[in-house]
Amino acid sequence: MNEKQRMMLQDLIVRYPKLESSKSDITAAFALICDTYKKRGKLLVAGNGGSAADAEHIVGELMKGFVKPRTIPDEFKEKLLKADKVLGERLSEYLQGALPAISLVGHTGLSTAYLNDADPVLGFAQQVYGFGCKGDLLLAISTSGNSKNIVYACVAAKAKGMKVIGLTGGTGGILKQYADVAVIVNEYETYQVQELHLPVYHTLCLMAEEEFF
Q1: Which of 18, 22, 41, 168 could form an SS bridge with 135, CB 3.0 to 4.6 Å?
Q2: How far apart are CA 133 and CA 71, in angstroms?
């Protein structure tokens, strides 16, 4: 972690003092994210309700520029121009660097087909099995830590040779047993846990962007 990243983390704690107890786990989660991307893995993100919205939010911050410009490499710009001079020029101007991330909460056709044909509680696990590869990372979000579909997804991730970050609250619930790193924020009410989750994942995204761009 460089000095700017340390300042980002410290700023988080200053603004949200209740996260002091989670500081070491946030640091460990950042290390897992960096390791995954340095080894060309990807991030899968899952959650329910408000945490489903958070999953989509996280992917949005990673797959395009967050606070920094993410100009694509000149080498790829040349390939775009070679593929099509006119369209490639526009693509090379507007495409942004991305950290590969997939939200598992969106795929409506797949998820509704699976819940109708198989078992709704295994929907995230099915996607982890289909999308996940050894070396990938699952960010599993559950405010209680006891969401059954999230826990099943963690088991599938472990079987695929993936690491798991749990983002939760309260006591950490069952999720902490399956997470390589469990970021357990110091709140118990669902909405209050979610209010702390957002600055945590924003900071992780900021730190990741600083690392790779």
Answers
A1: 41
A2: 28
